[in-house]
Amino acid sequence: MEMLRRSSVFAAEVMEVFDRSPTDKELVSQAKALCRDYINSRLIRAGVSWSKPEYNVPVPGGRLAEVSTILLRLGDELEYIRPNVYRNIARQLNISLHSETVVTDAFLAVAAQIFTAGITWGKVVSLYAVAAGLAVDCVRHAQPAMVHTIVDCLGEFVRKTLVTWLKRRGGWTSQDVW
User: Fold this and answer.
1) Model pLDDT for residues 59-87, shown as the tens digit of each residue
2) 23-168: what fold?
3) Residue 26 burial (10 A CB sphere; 0-12, 13-18, 19+)
4) pTM, rounded to two decimals
5) Residue extents of the structural domains in the chain
6) What would the pLDDT profile of 141-162 be if each residue is shown by its tens digit?
7) Which of 67, 57, 73 lies closest to 30 in space, CA to CA?
8) What's the mean pLDDT in 30-53?
9) N or C of the chain: less Cβ packing under 10 Å?
10) Which residues fall within 8 angstroms of residue 153, CB to CB, at 6 or more apart?
11) Cβ atoms of 79 and 86 closer than 8 Å
12) Where is the Bcl-2 Bcl-2 homology region 1-3 domain (predicted)?
């Protein structure tokens, strides 16, 4: 009887590991890793140099790397369809890139606007495209430190606005999502 009880406890612990949904912290961390990868891709495509080592680290392997590839591909399509929306973000917003507060406030305002009518995966891709467009602007205008601010800002927006929605869908790496 004791052996059966121990094996049942073990089985329950194993199932808990497999069935658990990602934590808020994990979802935000993954969102930021995806953002760094997306931004790095766009900086390379724009031909601007970016030498911050923490931003050259690729998204960890496995399913998150697959999600990053898909996110980038979807972003390519979105940016191809509407190139004027995702380029020259700072000029469109009429903001100076010399103030962290200005960049943060502008990014959060755009993010909030994107999701005013609800959350969809397409809008999530759009959020990443805006972040990358703004990051390209920052690097081109000699403000590369602002890229870190944009990544953190996106993470905070995900924490406050998208985490619950992401959890209901199984997180970034759910097989059903992408």
Assistant:
1) 567 899 999 999 999 999 999 999 999 99
2) Apoptosis Regulator Bcl-x (1.10.437)
3) middle
4) 0.84
5) 23-168
6) 999 999 999 999 999 999 999 9
7) 67
8) 88
9) N
10) 103, 104, 107, 108, 131
11) yes
12) 71-172
